[in-house]
Design goal:
Number of strands: 0
Helix content: 55-70%
Number of helices: 7
Largest sheet: none
Structural class: mainly alpha
Radius of gyration: 16 Å
Strand content: under 5%
């Protein structure tokens, strides 16, 4: 939340904000995506809603983030329901659960949910206007930037200690 508010939301591109609309990465979704894989479904939905509500209040998005985070928390449970069983038998305790899966699985997991988030956020906040002229480009660029920022932050925040 702090990184999103103090750094990412303060970056402006172009002259007179002509292309700033293309740069709208949201890394708050990282919080929901990195919650434990074995979390109870109802708790996951509740925590996702609270995280989205906090984001909606801080970014003045009128509940859009709360709705999208809740949906992503609901769907994420079904995507990660078997992951806990698969990785719990491994001896990689110092890694976060997304790093215990293959890189291709982790990248697909992050990118799909980030694309869903940005698509829903753009469609709801703009009411679907200018989808083909600016929407698709905004969704793609913001999703790619968010994806790389989330991978970078996950690697920096959850690097296992070398003991």
């Amino acid at each position: 939340l702090v990184i999103q508010m103090l750094i990412i939301n303060k970056i402006y591109l172009g002259f007179n904000n002509h292309i700033t609309y293309l740069f709208q990465p949201h890394i708050m979704i990282m919080f929901v995506l990195l919650l434990p894989a074995n979390m109870n479904h109802l708790w996951l939905i509740f925590i996702s809603f609270i995280a989205g509500l906090i984001a909606a209040i801080n970014f003045n998005t009128y509940g859009i983030n709360a709705a999208i985070f809740t949906l992503i928390g609901f769907v994420r449970y079904y995507v990660t329901v078997d992951v806990d069983k698969e990785i719990s038998s491994r001896e990689e305790d110092k890694k976060i659960w997304t790093s215990k899966k293959s890189k291709s699985w982790k990248w697909t997991y992050f990118m799909v949910f980030i694309l869903v988030y940005h698509t829903l956020f753009y469609m709801i906040s703009s009411l679907g206007r200018n989808f083909f002229t600016t929407g698709i480009l905004t969704i793609i660029i913001s999703s790619v930037i968010s994806f790389f920022l989330i991978l970078l932050l996950e690697d920096l925040l959850f690097k296992p200690s070398k003991n």
